[in-house]
């Protein structure tokens, strides 16, 4: 007898608590699970970087920048490192696209979808909640929709990306093993805004 | 709290960084030829000035790149990280 395979996102156990701490008029917190995430390392000045930009339909951004295509967001994590974020199930396709465009040039393409999960913090008070544990200026004048940052949020490493849909919001990429800690911290930080 | 200018990520709190000691300590060209005293000198002996000091720092919570920084050890005044071009040797691809 074999066990049935199943997937549980790192914050599945906190889904109810996050929903309970959310308030439509102030701040909403929810997990965005199972996004495809692929790390790319390549020399930004080389021909391979240009081929990859052409294959993706968006030039690779500099450190702290975000380039978006219809399906994929490309986050510049460093001078020669990028994180590609796509919809669930897109990891293999992304890897194939990148590997083909890399064409044996010196670089690396790795599926890191299981490394981090994403917490969406949105609403008029999203910035106030995050700034309780993050020293970066997250005002849209400084941290616009084409910016991302790797930093510490509540003393744990995280990647921040602005993700405005209807209202201002952020995606916080956090390591799977730190996700419950960060979720608990966010619930506490959002308490004063009345969940 | 020092505000350290990462050449790639911009100014960040010092808690995001890892300290790497004196900058510009060259690895001996021929380590085999060194006496024990000379080898110990390379391994363990560093300048400890009161004043401007060139240091290695690594942006642990950010881009995870090493870079050089000049800092006044008496006042913590930061006298600038190199421009991107000067940091090229620390970029490993």
From TrEMBL, chain A:
List the SUPFAM superfamilies hit by this protein, alphabetically: Folate-binding domain
Lineage, top-rank taxon, reads Bacteria
Coiled-coil intervals: none
- Identification of the protein by name: Sarcosine oxidase subunit gamma
From TrEMBL, chain B:
Q: Name the Pfam families for this protein.
A: SoxD (PF04267)
Q: Which InterPro entries match?
A: SoxD, SoxD_sf
List the protein's name. Answer: Sarcosine oxidase subunit delta
Annotated source species: Nocardiopsis endophytica
